Structure formats: C-alpha cells, structure tokens
UniProtKB/TrEMBL annotation:
Keywords carried by this UniProt record: ATP-binding, Kinase, Nucleotide-binding, Transferase
Region feature (Disordered): 1-25
Domain Protein kinase: 35-312
Binding positions (ATP): 71
Protein species of origin: Ambrosia artemisiifolia (Common ragweed)
Domain of life: Eukaryota
Pfam families: DUF7477, Pkinase
Family per record: Belongs to the protein kinase superfamily. CK1 Ser/Thr protein kinase family. Casein kinase I subfamily.
Upper lineage: Eukaryota, Viridiplantae, Streptophyta, Embryophyta, Tracheophyta
GO molecular function annotation: ATP binding; protein serine/threonine kinase activity
Protein name: non-specific serine/threonine protein kinase
Keyword Transcription: no
Enzyme Commission code: 2.7.11.1
C-alpha cells in the first residue's frame, strides 16, 4: 500500500523528515488500545505513513482491525506550527464518506500529530506498474465512474481535494470485501470551494507564485495560481484517466526550472483528440465537458458517469461502482434528470485550445515578474505555510487584516525591508517579544487583530522608523495620540483586538502632517490600557 501526503508542497518539493525525532514505537489510542509501529508505507511533504499492528484493546467505535495505517506529522512542520495539521479539520467533515477511508483517531503523541486510519490496498499507480504500465479500458472506465462519484461526495461537503492523481486513489485491502472498492486519500491540499460561514462559493483569485499540487495532473488554473473549485478536481481526474490508459502524458518530458510553466503551456496546446488519441470517445467527451466548466458552475456528475456506462457493460466491473449507481438513482429521483442529447449539454462557447491559448499564455507571462501576492480567508493553520512560500519567492508582508477570525495579508517584493519576523497571539502576551525585537533592530510594520482577541503582529528591519510606541486599550486613546503627535510621532499602524484598540506610532515615518477622523469616539474615560 502507498500513501502519499503532499502537505502543501508540489511534487517537486517533497521533503523527508531528516533531523526529526524518530516516530514512536507504539501508538496509544484513548488509553486502552495500542498499536505497534511497523514498516513504512510511504511519505510525502511532512508526513509519514506506517503500518500499525494492534497489540491490545479496540477502537472507540468498536473496530477490532488488526492492521491500520498510522499517519505521522511532526509538530515542527509548516502545517503544524499553530496546532494540528489542516488535514485534521478536513477529515472531521469527510471521514467515512463514500470513497474516503475512516479516520478512527486524531491526536498527538510526543513530537508527532497522529491519525489512525483504515488500512488500504495498492494505489492505481501500483496497479499500473504491476501490469507493465497497462490498464484495460474497462478498468479505467470503472475508475472514472467511481472516482466521479467520490469527488461528488467530497464536493458536497464543501471541499475540493486539490491533488487528484493515481497515487492518491487506493483500492481496498486484498482479501477483504473492500478489495474492489476505490478510495481517495491524502487531504493535505484540500481547500474549501464553499465558504463555511456564508455557504456561498468562494471568490475567484489568482496568485501566480502559489502553485499547490502535482505538476503532471494539476489543472491549468492551478498552474496559474487560480483559486481551486470543483472543476479543477475533475480536470485532474481527466489527466489521471489519460495516464492510466496510455501510461504517459504529453507534458511529462518538460524539465528544468520552468517545467511547471512548460507543462501548463503544453496542457493548453493539447487538444482532447490528442490527449485521448485511440481511446473510446467517452473519455474525450468527459475532458471536453470539464475543461469548459466555469469557476462556480456545478458539475453534472451524473451525466459524466453515464458517459462510461456503455464501456463497462452489464457484467460486474473490475471496480465496484455501487456508489456511482446510488448517486444516479438519488439524483434522478430528486431531480428527474433531463435526457438531453450530448450536443445540447455542450457549452455554447468552448475554452479555446491550440495556438490561441498559447498566445494568451505568453501575454500572461509578459506581465512577469509579479511583484505582489494577496491571500485572504487564511486560517492560523495555513498562515505559516503561505508566509514561508512568499519568503522563498522574495516577498515580505506589507499589510495584514482580519475578518471573521481569518487573516488577509499582502506580500510584496518592493517593501524595502531586509528581514521580517511575526507572531500570532494576544498582544498582552507579546510585550516582552516586541521589546526584544525592538532591541534587535526590528520595527512594527503591520498589525491586525481578530474578534476572539488574538493578533498578528509583523516586525521588519529596513523601515525608516527611529522610535516606536504602541498602546492597547478598551477606549480609543486620542489624548495619548495627541501627545505623541506633538513629539513628532505619526500613526503607522492601527487595529482592533477583540474589544480593544491597538495603535502604533512611529518617529521618522516621513509624514509631514496627519489627521484622524474619530467620530463618536470619546477622548477620555480610559478604563484599561497597556503602553509599551
């Protein structure tokens, strides 16, 4: 069995866990069940997966599985700086869904965050390799049918998987009733397409320096740094099917520093007829449908599944497709699915392919180098990863904000800063840290606070500031600001943290004059404040 965990990295950036303490020899679950950690099954960006053999007890749900998969992620990895990995949160919503393995336990032991999961069988990549890189058309069609139904279920939970590829599709454990079932694993790159608070589709955005996924199978939008939506999982599935059918993809030979761009360019040049040359027509039609989906458009999963029915035939398929059939029955019963012909379903305007798209790519590339990146709706668990990626691209934080306890930040290559540090915690706990950074030559360059009383404070070297002062108060401190103005200070940052105001004033800002509009804010009646 192979498990792969990209954990926020592309396939070009997969790292080992050298320098970390060894994984524990045993894993204790709930104080009553223990597993012996045996051979390694696989590893990815920051996680390792081992075979776990039950020593005693049983899981809280009554499972008595002798063998399980144990997934370890070190606490120092980028995704764990502020707590459990983001994948923990995703599995809270999708664990046990159709085609998703059960996660029986999530927790921490020693230096590692641990998940106890179903033990599964070989990946589709393993199956392909064991069959001389050949897979029957009926087998691939069965994979298509069941994979579409699995993605529909994940999408219904509000998530996009973000890393659909042969290595992440696993069959059930051989010799069990699940051996012909298909499962999708590794939710380390999953993102929400539907806002958890509003229930609305997330907004489209583009961050050209932010590629997340696996280059061979990533959608064109992913290569260009676009916000992922449901269409991207399905486009990646189309590339996966092409690989399973042919054993290679037209862009696999792209090498060098710009290989991701070259792969993207090649994908846009490759027509459906070329990608699925000598393959049954339904594969080409599926690809045409999914690449023509709009950003917010709901895919017609049932239509896509029906494309492959004629290939699989009436005999029991190589892959169990019960989940897909249940989806068809459920949707038809609820919606009375229209029986339009194929042409009626085709979008009126197809996404252009070939030379026009190549020219568009080059127009986009001519705008480089991109100087700025904007991240929004960032949870604490993703913050460190995004900042590190920006730093690696020569970008530093120029501005931060917060809404609904999620962060927004702008990273810029033209800040003029030479070095930068940041911290997330209540400001009342940060006094010593701020004082220490001031001594080290850093100045507060950006600050934001959340409704629940936490703050993101960014300090940088290379600012023009000579001296700084910061106040945290339940009342707006106009009198304090006025005194600082008279001493030559100016407001250089302002935020709210819970029910408190935060004001940063600096000497040497370069401002000649400054005014403040503070309607309905009293100038006295101070109840609580901290001055650094």
């Amino acid at each position: 069995m192979d498990y792969y965990d990209s954990a926020g990295l592309s396939d070009d950036e997969v790292l080992g866990n050298e320098g970390h303490t060894p994984v524990p020899e045993t894993v204790n679950v709930g104080g009553s069940t223990s597993y012996k950690v045996e051979r390694e099954l696989g590893k990815g960006g920051f996680a390792q997966v081992y075979l776990g053999r039950r020593i005693n007890g049983q899981l809280s749900n009554g499972s008595t599985a002798v063998e399980v998969a144990l997934k370890f992620e070190h606490q120092s990895s980028n995704g764990c700086i502020y707590g459990p990995p983001y994948e923990f949160h995703v599995y809270d919503d999708v664990s046990g869904s159709h085609g998703v393995p059960h996660v029986y336990y999530k927790g921490r032991q020693g230096d590692y965050y641990i998940m106890v999961m179903d033990m599964l069988g070989p990946s589709l990549m393993d199956v392909l390799r064991n069959n001389s890189h050949s897979m029957s058309i009926e087998m691939v069609a069965s994979v298509a049918i069941e994979a579409i139904s699995i993605l529909e279920k994940i999408h219904s939970k509000g998530y996009v998987h973000g890393d659909v590829k042969p290595e992440n599709f696993l069959l059930g454990l051989p010799g069990t009733s699940d051996e012909k079932k298909l499962f999708l694993v590794d939710f380390g790159l999953a993102v929400r397409w539907r806002n958890a608070l509003s229930g609305l589709h997330v907004e489209n955005d583009q961050q050209p320096y932010m590629f997340r996924g696996t280059s061979w199978y990533a959608s064109v939008h992913a290569h260009l740094g676009g916000t992922l939506s449901r269409r991207d999982d399905l486009e990646s599935l189309a590339y996966t099917l092409a690989f399973l059918l042919r054993g290679l993809l037209p862009w696999q030979t792209s090498l060098g520093k710009n290989k991701s761009f070259l792969m993207c360019k090649k994908k846009m040049e490759t027509s459906p007829e070329t990608l699925f040359c000598s393959c049954p027509v339904p594969f080409r039609k599926f690809f045409e449908y999914v690449v023509n989906l709009k950003f917010e458009e709901k895919p017609n999963y049932e239509k896509y599944i029906s494309l492959f029915d004629g290939i699989v035939g009436p005999d029991p398929p190589p892959i169990n497709t019960d989940g897909a059939q249940k989806l068809i029955v459920r949707k038809r019963g609820a919606l009375s699915l229209e029986q339009d012909d194929d042409d009626a379903e085709q979008p009126k305007k197809k996404v252009p392919m070939g030379m026009p798209v190549t020219q568009w790519i080059w127009v986009y590339n001519a705008c480089c180098p991109m100087k700025q990146i904007y991240h929004h709706d960032v949870a604490d668990v993703r913050l460190a990863q995004l900042i590190q990626k920006g730093n690696e691209d020569g970008l530093l934080i120029s501005s931060v904000a917060s809404c609904s306890n999620l962060w927004t930040l702008i990273m810029d290559s033209g800040t003029g800063f030479t070095s930068q540090v940041y911290r997330v915690s209540p400001l009342s706990n940060n006094k010593d840290w701020i004082m220490e950074q001031w001594k080290n030559g850093y100045s507060i360059s950006a600050i934001a606070g959340t409704n629940d009383g936490s703050s993101l404070i960014v300090m940088s070297k290379g600012t023009p500031y000579i001296l700084q002062a910061i106040i945290v108060s339940e009342k707006f401190q106009f009198e304090w600001i006025d005194k600082k103005w008279k001493l030559g200070y100016n407001i250089t940052a302002m935020a709210t943290e819970g029910n408190k105001w935060v004001v940063v004033m600096s000497l040497g800002s370069g401002f000649s004059d400054q005014v403040l509009f503070a309607a309905a804010i009293p100038q006295s009646c101070i109840r609580y404040y901290i001055i650094f």
